[in-house]
Structures
1.
Amino acid sequence: MNMVLRKSTVPVMLFVLLASLSVACGGTPTSPSPSPTAIHTYPVAPQFRELYAYLGGNAILGPAISDVILLENLSMQYTEKVLMVYDPYAPSDRQHYLAPLGKEFGFLDPPVPMPQQGGSLYVDGHIVYADFVSIYEALGGVRYAGKPLTEVRYNPEENRLEQHFENIGIYQSLTNVIGDPELLYYGIEACGYQCRHQMSSNSGALHNDSALPEPFASTVARLGQTFVGEYLFGPYEAKDGNQEVIFGNLVLYAIPDDPNRAYARPISKLVGYEEKPLVEKLDSQLVYFFRIEGDLGHNIPLLFYDYISQHGGIDVSGYPITEIFPYQDNIYRQCFENLCLDSDPNAAEGQQVHPVNLGSIYKTLFINPGPQATKEPVSKLRIQLWEEESLIDSDHVQTIHVTITRDGMPVENVAPDIELTLPDDTRSVYVFPPTNAGGSASLSIPAIKAPNGALIPYEVCAKDGDAGEICTSDSYIIWGN
């Protein structure tokens, strides 16, 4: 799990742990505790069934992943996406609510001004991203989802847009085709080792250290990830004082006085493409003539012009600076102020026209990562952990499960190692068998002699090529002796 988030979830996990231990030590729940299914889900408790159904049930909130947790007069139950709370002593219209997990995680952006143009949903200093308004309102708006804590962000590591609210997080995947908005896995992250549940999808996992702020997030969503290219670097303060983010095909920057819009940086000439003399209009129906000075300008092939029109227009590409020219076998190129386009008739359908990877050249030429850099490129390798038993006695063997993915896809034949810290501060190291075709592997850990309540932290690490070693930590508790 993400260590940045785990630090901020300590208050939530502590009261969950105390509630669980009170039951283990003899406390009596209001109803028999059902046994979890093989994938560690539970029936939704009677006191939450109406709220669960009203908010969309399993399709929106995910399955229940904990039994009912009792804390003083409160009843609580985790689903994949939220923590439901019931207070029988509150006014009748406020007895059911969602816990403020977003606040516990520490998500918070400075407030932004109210938009001058109408049509935006502005709540308590933040704009609810347009594509998220429907699901936000379906979840009751402020009543259940809570107030927004951040503006929409672009998360390059997961290639998604995300926005955080007091009680929920909403994301939208940008992989391949833009998907419908869904809820982030707040419940799984907050419950931690108490809930041994494997996510039904990796795309909703929380990674608080890898989201780009506005205005870059919405600009990437509008232009398309394939068009802007892979995230490479930023945001950082460029030499002109603007905030800048480098993608594979495009460099975006934001002016401090105009923080609500991102512009494309004119990088073509900076990376070596010379501006060519203006020409006259060709007598051809296969080109669009772009006038620049008098009757002179550049001829843009219609397949390029249509592509540009679908991705922000000339405002994004900039003026053409060359005619189309042969680049290499069967590939033709034309450069604009902010990008270059290639035409490859032998490429797969829908990919015959594509931007050139100028952003990578720009980064190599002009960026020397130093004190100003606020974000380094991140590895796409992800390690997900869970134990067979989150509470286990000293006589039983523990089994640790691991799933390794890259860009949401399973990674085969990786043999991570695991280091456990024992109660006497000694350490034990084991090696998992190689992951299978599903990216999964399991390892049995010998029984550990320790008193009830002893926490057994462990860290699983895997090699990730040039990115070095990627590690994820978790823990379980000795209990039931």
2.
Amino acid sequence: MLFNMELNSEDIRQKYNKEASSYDWRLNVLETLTGMKKIRRELLAKASGNALAVAIGTGRDLLFYPRECTVTGIDLSEEMLRIAETNASRLHLHPALMKMDAESLTFLDDSFDTVVSTLALCTFPHPEKALQEMRRVCRPDGKVLLLEHGKSSLPKLARLQGALDDQWCKRSGCHLNRKPDELVRTAGFEILSDRKSFFGILHSIVAKP
């Protein structure tokens, strides 16, 4: 899968360091428009055991993990991790937070019962590598939970996404027209459910290695 506009991991790190302070405000607007908060809550309720949050960002998901989960969160951006730590402290939660590249996880194989990634496949320079790493560190009887956006199921909207993709990626660091379900299958997962919403743009995916 080829894209005209690509940012490398360092580009992404710098961009999210710069935008970390405004990230939650912008996501609040998006979640209000799309109903994403409810989708996020319902998806994260399926997490269990030892959970890995890939590209944890500012820690928006932390509120929705079942309390019995032990959460480890990784992200490329130091500033996003700093805000995640502040948000976790406010919620009286204690996740293990560390800087790490999603495309090259340092965890051993089969380390986690649940692997979670929300709104991140759009930003990874090589999403297939990140998904393969998620599959590697997830236990064979575990699950991967993904909340992602991608190419709309409406042809006119999909064409608009394609036309805007390069400039949007340059500005925001994320692609508008990737296909999360196809990426997940190509990485070797079995998709157990894929709930689509908001004109087919949002995907709430439960998969197993």
3.
Amino acid sequence: MITTDAKADSWAAIDLGSNSFHMVVAVQDGSSIRHIDSIRDAVRLGAGLDHRKRLLPETEARALDTLARFAERLRGVPSENIRMVGTNTLRRARGARRFMQRAAELVGCPVDIVSGREEARLIWSAVAHTLPETANHRLVIDIGGGSTELIIGKGLSPILMESLNIGCVSLMQSVFSRRKLKPSSMKEAITAAQLELQPVAKAYRDLEWQDVVGCSGTIKAAARMLAELGLTDGVIERAALHELIFDIAEAGGTEALQLESISQSRRDVIPGGLAALYGLMKILDIQTLQACNAALREGLIFDMIGASDYLDVRTQTVENLQSRFLIDTNQAARVERTAHELFDHVAKTWNLDPDADLDLLINAARLHELGMGVAHTQYHKHGAYILEHSDLLGFSLGEQNALALLVRWHRRKIDFEAFDTLPDSDRERLLKLLGLLRLAALMHRGRHDEPLDDIRLRISEGRITVSASQDWLDNHPLTAAELTAEAERLLHVNIRLKIDKS
């Protein structure tokens, strides 16, 4: 049994997958990690959505029971060292707010829903930190319950990443729920996988990898099955995989093969996973691949341990957006400096997080004019749309949504109903940050580098007092008018802005 003291320096990651929930507890071991606890439960989240894509009550109950068991094993792990992420099913699910709130209460950390490309980046991180580095391009494949991630990279850096909406559970639902498992339906499932992969296949073939690695339950199960049947020594060979899947199809399921290497829960979904794997190997012309034990959850731990590298990914994402959409970085820097100064004044009084909240505010300041790369008119709306619908590496979907809200409402009238879907604590926090961003952007309306020495700020509880000389107000009439109008708007976010003519 792992003692509480032993867990004090440990890290934990929970993957709320479409087929299984996984939890890993690990400690840092040099440049790698060493597992001290792990647990898996086949929750089948992907098969637990109704026709409206809402979680069925029995699925939600099963998922929460699993998380309650995980929570028992997490006692002693510092809460700041735990991360829990949702993948394909929670990306698609509607009305999952109650489940995520209850999950957060059980585990002691929020559920971060990650985009498909962010999931791919984390998988790459896990494999790159676990396997010896090669001089050549490496292709990494992860077939999950609802999606398949394909990543090509070199060293610690991914180069090409995709997340495709096909997995062992989704294929079982789309093909084998309509037809019995037999050779003809297996061929149909393989074709469905190839059709999903076809649009990206050429880009992956053109990069000419020399090393292919697979991770996830499907691929590890395939390797064990091939070894148990004596078809390979554990390497996944395409010809041997073809023999295996059609033996299963002829037999009408894995039970007839009496395999001991896969669990009962895996047997129910493995035909779909094997079909996806074979279709992928065929369309990408992969002859063999090696299974790897590293997966998304290890990537999460490496991200937490190497927090500076993780922040570098986020910074690079923001800088890429600034470059791609031709953001005026001088103006962004002006707004960032003033927003940061405002934050420092109010953080303690307003109970804001000096790390997470400040990071969100700074990134919003850097990206608040993102939409100008599309059109100046209504640019705040264009910027919010880009942020909401892009794959932002290093950011969870919740963080993307928060960024989009700040950018969308950093100017003009505020529609408070846009914040109503957030939990009360998040709503209050975001509205406070919005007030700071709006005020910072307003103060630099003139887009000049002149110092704001003639403006003084005083903070008291919920009030921000802006003191400016009459001369300054006379020389900046547009900003003065905006400050007066903003005082009325900010009253609705519980910020009292007072213009004090000194």
4.
Amino acid sequence: MNPDSPPELLRVSVWRGKEQGRFVRYEVPRLPSQTVLDVVTHIQRRIDPGLGYRYACRVGMCGSCAMSVNGVARWTCRTHVSRVASADGELEIAPLPNLPVIKDLVVDMREFFDKWARAMGRFHGSAGRHDEFARVDPAGERRRAADAGIECIGCGVCYASCDVVAWRPEFLGPAALNRAWTLVNDERDVQRDARLRATSGNRGCHACHTQGSCTERCPKGIAPTAAIAGLKRLSLRAPGTQRGD
């Protein structure tokens, strides 16, 4: 690149406002190894300090920087501009779908985590602090099933990518159901049947259409689609569970 030539520019459309906001266009210098989060940070620090967005670690550990980039939910700290910008430098950044917008690129995650609670996403064991440690075979079938989904960090990318959530707002969503699946397969947990009842029916696993968007877009490589299929199988044998219509 000629140091005397003007910098190459990105033309970035960013959502501003709340649910009824609009896209505002900004021009941002295009730089080597630039991430989408770098672009948003440049706009907030150099152009428009009123822009609201959320981030913390910047290294793909917390998931709080998740946004919609060109219509796809992503972690913006791990998404390089070179992968997603159009040939002429166009980029669109919006808040995550399926969640209420607080301001600009910030969404309200309460509904997402409330559904974790409704899916009984909390471990309940029978042992106390003075009991012997449980011995769980790491090669056991149930332990391996739990391990496949246990790395979820609750970023909301799968929830934002789920069409069923958009169609049925009461649907628990892939993250909550994946969490339930890990606990159903935890040999130490004592609420397996209650959890299967809580996650069955038309707001639970039976509402899933198995489209696979959650699995395709999970930044951690988790397969909520497989977890939901497992819940469907187990719920057929569990007492008191509901079926989908």
